[in-house]
TrEMBL record:
Regions annotated as coiled coil: none
Motif (TonB box): 32-38
Domain TonB-dependent receptor-like beta-barrel: 256-669
Keywords assigned: Cell outer membrane, Ion transport, Iron, Iron transport, Membrane, Receptor, Signal, TonB box, Transmembrane, Transmembrane beta strand, Transport
Stored Gene3D superfamilies: TonB-dependent receptor, beta-barrel domain, TonB-dependent receptor, plug domain
Presence of the UniProt keyword DNA damage in the record: no
Protein name: TonB-dependent siderophore receptor
PANTHER family xrefs: FERRICHROME IRON RECEPTOR-RELATED, FERRICHROME OUTER MEMBRANE TRANSPORTER_PHAGE RECEPTOR
Length: 698
């Protein structure tokens, strides 16, 4: 079968065969946010102090301080989410080092992005420590209002997480019930006719406080930067925690979301003569035009997603702790689009994941061990039906092609975190077994069947030394393995992607300040990675070998004088090592050498303006290639985006307004819109967006 994509959008979509520094002398005393914490706030799923994360389970599945975790970790905390109010995962990650967003311009259908030059859209997004099961055209969408935080672990994590990329994972941490009563409602309005209502309520459900609840939701009616695309959404996320005693905790997490956007975000591309970099014939028309190829009369992409899961933890004694996480999720897509004819894709995706582990804390002489042993199982099953052309605009074409796949992964893992004086050694191993069955064919005909059985051993090891003054240099090495759903250009089932990375880094928590610095150099080798290439004007999935190396530095702080900041710089050289003869050694398209960002936020602490907060940021994206062939005519120019925020707590005007906050957020304030080309097809950046909100907490 020849895979065709008429929509030419994000990496997930492209698999659709037819759809084809501040002053301050004291350490800041902000409220420490602890999600399912235990005790002092140094333990739990996640804890943070303003912009600065202090502890979390995402990196090791154990309660380990981030300074003592010898790997690169960035965190988007609840404070950052509230101040910047991102509308999707890409906006939430916009100031994270190494994360390249906007590779497909403005496209609200999928959160397509890379980390360290590696596409992580399908195989690196986790939810509460479990991989989000997804199919080629069926990816769970994110509602940031339902998140407590985002933890970005850079570098291979397959040793404990199994199927995940060599660039790392992005762990989305859901809002959980709180012991203290919490109530919030909010209304929003802004660009493109946006109207939205949010609510978030939580607290004890019984007098004893052994049962806690939380209910988070929103309703939105909006358009987008592309007039033919909607941005409508209904979202509700219930959560319940039962804690009968200090040793046992059970949390149930659910979600239902019904969202509608546009079926295509593609613009008409014009192709001229191809020349090498020494040629004199250059086409001035090559690339995107302002002609939108879709049609709002047949352009609804409706997605209904449901997930339900639980987290169980039981502490037997001071040595042994049992944990189990499980989730079932279901996703239904109905995607209408126009690309020189009507197209329709319907896909149903379902899957579950279960991760069971036992932790043991033991001491041998002067050495402390935190041992972790576990087993996890995940299963994906999807059915896809597609049709294209042959009917008048507005009518559904016949669904003439179908694909179906079942992908089951089982893994066992073992990890030991060793502590001896200032030394920290972390080592983990894992083995995965994967069974895949893929069917494809014309509707009503006997399908062609392909099967794969794969297995892979992965591991990681890291060594660091934690000094008394907050400095922790480290070195790490890890390998990765991930099975890929769908097929590649020749019609065969995609091969698993493998990778390895070496990293050298340093972490520094500034003594006396709520501030930290992180820096790392890395080198990644990835085999059979999935990328997308425009062939005969259509975007198709191919697999290649890739080498990515670079350097990253990040600083975050929340200081006592009201100033918070996040600053980062990353250098990334991503090159193709094997795919076709004409691309070997070329830089990977849309991956710039240089990216940098800075976000500053200041809250007035006293005086008449107390409660006024002003934030602003700049995101710089360096120049990059527009396709993997290196044709200079569609190179991407360097650009910078300016974002801003202003808020005011109205209770400073009157005590009767206690709990009310007015806030305005803007992205791309200067309306910087340029062409962005990836894998030979070109798109446009999203223009200026302004959102105003009025929030009431009690």
């Amino acid at each position: 079968m020849t895979i065709r994509s008429a929509l030419l959008g994000s990496s997930a979509l492209l698999l659709t065969p037819i759809a084809a520094l501040a002053q301050g002398t004291e350490r800041i005393q902000l409220d420490t946010i602890v999600v399912e914490g235990q005790g002092s706030g140094e333990k739990g799923v996640f804890s943070a102090n303003g912009y600065v994360a202090t502890s979390g389970r995402s990196a090791s599945k154990t309660d380990t301080p981030l300074l003592e975790t010898p790997m690169s970790i960035s965190t988007v905390t609840q404070t950052q989410l509230e101040q910047r109010k991102p509308q999707n995962l890409l906006e939430a990650l916009a100031y994270t080092p190494g994360a390249r967003i906007g590779t497909y311009g403005f496209d609200p259908r999928y959160d397509a992005f890379t980390i360290r030059g590696i596409d992580v859209t399908q195989n690196a997004v986790f939810r509460d420590g479990l991989r989000q099961i997804g199919s080629p055209n069926g990816l769970m969408r994110l509602e940031p209002y339902g998140l407590e935080a985002i933890s970005v672990l850079r570098g291979p994590a397959s040793a404990i997480y199994g199927a995940s990329t060599s660039a790392g994972i992005v762990d989305l941490i859901s809002k959980r019930p709180t012991e203290t009563p919490f109530r919030e409602i909010e209304i929003q309005g802004g660009s493109f006719g946006r109207k939205q209502f949010n609510f978030d309520i939580s607290g004890p459900a019984n007098p004893e406080g052994t049962l806690l609840y939380r209910l988070t939701g929103l309703v939105r009616d909006a358009k987008t930067d592309i007039g033919a695309m909607k941005d409508d959404r209904v979202f509700i996320a219930p959560a319940l925690t039962w804690k009968p005693n200090e040793a046992t905790k059970l949390t149930v997490l659910g979600e239902y979301m019904d969202s509608t956007t546009g079926g295509t975000a593609a613009y008409l591309n014009l192709y001229g003569p191809y020349v090498d970099r020494q040629g004199n014939v250059l086409s001035k028309t090559l690339g995107a035009t302002k002609v939108y190829v879709g049609d709002k009369r047949y352009n609804d992409f409706r997605q209904q997603q449901t997930r339900i899961g639980y987290e169980l933890e039981h502490k037997f004694d001071e040595v042994f702790t049992f944990r189990q996480r499980a989730r079932y999720q279901q996703l239904g897509n109905n995607q209408q689009y126009v690309y020189f004819g009507s197209g329709l894709t319907r896909e149903n995706t379902a899957g579950f994941s279960v991760d069971t582990s036992l932790e043991a804390k033991v001491r041998t002489g002067a050495v402390d061990h935190t041992l972790l042993a576990g087993i996890d199982v995940s299963r994906l099953h999807y059915k896809n039906k597609e049709g294209f052309g042959g009917v008048p605009l507005g009518y559904n074409p016949a669904l003439l092609w179908r694909t179906e796949q079942t992908l089951t992964t089982t893994g066992v893992y073992l990890q030991d975190q060793i502590k001896w004086g200032g030394w920290r050694l972390s080592a983990g191993v894992r083995n995965d077994w994967v069974d895949s069955k893929f069917e494809a064919g014309a509707a009503g005909a006997v399908p062609t069947e392909s099967k794969r059985n794969d297995g892979k051993f992965t591991g990681r090891a890291a060594l660091s030394y934690v000094t008394d003054f907050g400095l922790a240099p480290y070195v790490s090495y890890g390998t990765s393995f991930v099975p890929n759903p769908g097929t590649v250009l020749n019609g065969g089932v995609a091969q698993p992607t493998t990778g390895k990375q070496a990293e050298l880094g340093v972490k520094y928590d500034l003594p006396g300040y709520n501030a930290s610095l992180r820096a790392a150099v890395f080198n990644i080798r990835q085999d059979n990675g999935v990328v997308y290439e425009v062939v005969d004007g259509l975007n198709r999935q191919v697999q290649l070998d890739l080498r990515s190396s670079g350097f990253e530095i990040e600083g975050v702080a929340s200081l006592a004088n009201g100033l918070s900041l996040q600053a980062s710089y990353s250098y990334n050289d991503a090159r193709i090592k094997k795919v076709t003869e004409e691309t070997v050694g070329n830089r990977l398209s849309s991956i710039p050498y240089h990216m940098a960002s800075l976000w500053l936020d200041y809250t007035v602490q006293a005086g008449p303006a107390r409660g006024l907060g002003i934030g602003g940021g700049v995101r710089y994206v360096g120049s990059s290639l527009g396709d993997n062939l290196g044709r200079p005519v569609i190179d991407n120019k360097a650009r910078a985006f300016l974002d801003g925020s202003i808020r005011y707590d109205l209770e400073n005007l009157s005590p009767q307004l206690k709990g009310m906050r007015f806030q305005v957020n803007a992205t791309n304030l200067l309306n910087e819109v340029q062409q962005t080309c990836t894998a030979g097809y070109c798109y446009f950046d999203e223009g200026r967006k302004v959102i105003a909100s009025l929030r009431y907490r009690w």
